[in-house]
Amino acid sequence: MHALATTADAATELAGWLRLQHLPGVGPVAARALLARFGLPPQVFAAPFEALREVVPAGAARAIVQPPKPVANSQLELTLQWLQRRGNAVLTLADAAYPPLLLEIADPPLLLYVRGRAELLSRPGVAIVGSRNASAQGMQNAAAFAQALSAAGLTIISGLALGIDTHAHEGGLRGAGATVAVIGTGADLVYPRRNLDLAQRIAEQGCIVSEYALGLPAMPANFPRRNRLISGLARGVLVIEAAAQSGSLITARLAGEQGRDVYALPGSIHATLAKGCHALIKQGAKLVESVDDVLQELQWLGGVPGMPPAVEDEPSLLAALGHDPLDADTLAARSGLPIAELMGQMLALELAGRVERLPGGLFQRCK
Question: Does residue 240 contact residue 163 with C-beta atoms inside 8 Å?
Fold first, then answer.
């Protein structure tokens, strides 16, 4: 709805959508069926009970013909206040800016609450998901893959959780594609609180999106459900480190059901966090060893497969490395980069074929 929500007509329109969203017994699938049958929310609420009963169960039909509940009115006031803040928007199913890929899934949300660059929701993207309790190597992989894919022009989509999600967002912010965080709370809240600073940067440079009403706190049932939006917004889903019962496997399963590509990074046969990825590969997911694997599977023309991904300060890093093997601590001292940032950059260079990792934790420039 963007700035239109500041007008009286737009506020009335928003009230109808919020009322439909909060109807008991009417989820996204039933609501979409009602809209397909009757038109916009005002037409749905003006429909006679008998006609409604042909689309939804009797209990839902009775809820539709009843006067608006107080919850819808309070949500309208809260949402209108939230929309006054710069960068906030609400997109409805009828909005031309609604992400087209979400219209392809079985149960797209009636409303999307957006903070930041709403246009990113309609741009080609790759979801990167994985364990909250990721290894150091897994987090480095997530940041490096995300940075390289973002540099190629793909938006990085993830769920703002700790671990793999956090580092995927960080990598996405370093490239032109930026990043989208799909959250399991109201868009006015941040969970986990440890990612408050990251969420602010995403809202400024990327996009935060939620289907949940403003003020709704984190609830266990929210997160598996929001996973369908992570996969639904993406052209493919890359899983980096997942245990055998990981929630990331839910996202991968949903991606398959939605017709999206699924990629998985392999690991050691002894690593618990590799079990989920190996299971996905056995089930037909694409085994990924480099960024080019993803780009080639997508037939992505926004970037050039085979070319090294963009790395911040690449010339200076290679100059600091020189032509002889060097350990990370010495390279950090030469380059002036913090060790964590340096390792992410070096992994990106390694994935691009610019450097190789030697025994003993040494790096060397490729001939």
Answer: no
